[in-house]
Amino acid sequence: MRLLLVEDDLELQGNLKKQLMLENYSVDVASDGESGLFQGTEHPYDAAIIDIGLPIIDGISVIKALRDKQFTFPIIVLTARDSWQDKVAGLDAGADDYLTKPFHPEELTARLNALIRRSVGQASPVIENGPISINTKSMSVSVDGSDVSLSSYEYKLLEYLMLHINEVKSKTVLTEHIYDQDFDLDSNVIEVFIRRLRKKLDPESKYGFIETLRGQGYKMKAFTV
Amino acid sequence: MRLLLVEDDLELQGNLKKQLMLENYSVDVASDGESGLFQGTEHPYDAAIIDIGLPIIDGISVIKALRDKQFTFPIIVLTARDSWQDKVAGLDAGADDYLTKPFHPEELTARLNALIRRSVGQASPVIENGPISINTKSMSVSVDGSDVSLSSYEYKLLEYLMLHINEVKSKTVLTEHIYDQDFDLDSNVIEVFIRRLRKKLDPESKYGFIETLRGQGYKMKAFTV
DNA sequence: TAAAATGTTCAGGTTACGTTCAGATTAAAT
DNA sequence: ATTTAATCTGAACGTAACCTGAACATTTTA
Asked: Do residue B58 and residue B160 come from a single domain?
């Protein structure tokens, strides 16, 4: 974990850096707003600690500038003054937390840990297979980068196949996994949905995503890109 | 945004609830740890505010229990005592932030806003998506640079969708996050508000911001500028 | 207190989707 | 080569899900 610490009080800066390094962080320091902002845009930080009262450029402006440039790492504001307006201004500028000096170093590290824990988070729920990509969270599908809109059941079927790439799935199995209650198995719904999927995903049949294994079922072919 | 407020001082509870509702939050309250814990497990909250000193079950235990049960919404701890050990204990139990009484209500709402934004991966209080831009602080909305005035519920709905861009949200989920107490789910309020939003944000339907996924819900489409 | 704005319900119109069907194609079996 | 069964394919249909304008109810503002 790499941190940026922007603090003009050199004694405090040194102490905090020491404490943070004890907690196994890598720490870069800056002593004024300008170089803090520069550093923040140049390196990939996991979090930043920024004093409000800084030479050249004040802390609030640094935070605003970073957020404007779409940097999203967590930021903790340090404020010497015990004025709640300052804290609110910091949070409104895009900071995630603040600490009022003086504070116990344990407080800083506890908050840092909580913030960083939260800012990392869920892996992206995307399944890819060659030109096909599906996002299970947004239930969206794209082929060769362009979106394809599927109906509910079309999507369910595709998702199941994408989750079992290269496995042959019989119509019975597909039916069971797509419908909750048991369903009339004499129906040809699966055939119809497979047809519609093929048409939507691959109108010119140039890929042949879904293979038919007569008597056995269907298979989503694996593409080694 | 739906909040849970657990506070046994009824006067403070009332004041905070009023203040939070002014900020357009839907607020459920509890006055002891036991019912707070129960409520927290029963409804889908976007954040919780929990006092440390509570009857029946103390705040720390409530937080621990919620985190044990895998609830991940942000939690802010209120502490009457000015002891940093208490704060650290709260954070270690799984809280994301704390406030020491007495505090200014503005501080609470500023921190809440920041936390909720952060919890959905949004660092800045301004959320942009193609031609739409909303400011979660001033609750103002603009499309193509010109202001659009929304009613309270219209805004709540839009904000929730903007905080979850590209995610499909069912009418049930939308209802739960927009209203506090449970609400008649047979109603078609969501449909009506979606309709009004579409009309106000995109009168000529040239953008199609909000997509309908039949049987699943609505989705705020991501615009890659 | 009246008027305006907002929230909520209602009812009828519209459409997308799931489902079925029937005939055409294809592959396997004899 | 002929038969048979499995799959393909386009189209049709009925039904919820959704849309939509307006009415009614409630809260806020003047």
From this structure: no
